[in-house]
Amino acid sequence: MIANEAPAVTVKLRGDVLAKAVRQAAADAATKLAAAGAPPKMAVILASEDAASVTYAESKRKAAAALGIQVELHNLGPAATQGQLLGCCRALSADASVHGILLELPLAAGLNADAALDEIAPAKDIDGLTPWNLGLVSAGRESEALTSATAQACILLAETQGPLTSALIFQNLIRAAEKSLHER
Q1: Closest by alpha carbon to 125, among 138, 106, 144?
Q2: Model pTM?
Q3: How many folded domains does the chain comprise?
């Protein structure tokens, strides 16, 4: 223990209430877009037999439908070729009715995820994984990028849990840094 170190404090972060508010905002926005003649649509691309990926894609489809978001599931199967995968990514990127594309990872053995991500239009990369979006983040231009939903959730959760939580996060960072320094 480091001298004069404050005792560790545990704060339970509640994401359920925040998630409900975010989902409601998405549903409201989807309703407005549909009323304006542009119902939001996302495409999910599967190219594996990974059971968790299939389950996750199906849960996204159900959650999106509950919010009024259309979903196209493109299950290319584990025998898909790289050409089929790239063609699907290109076609969906060019399809004006598709507003967002998710490439479910992992892909089947032999398929190159980076090459597939290169074919997804950055403006439709709702996972924030294309080189373009990652580059914007790396350049400190996050506001221009579509970023990882997981990273956004962590930041939003920390920001909305009040100053104490943020302070504790930074306190933990300092503790970890001090520990690292003392272990050298």
Answers
A1: 144
A2: 0.79
A3: 2
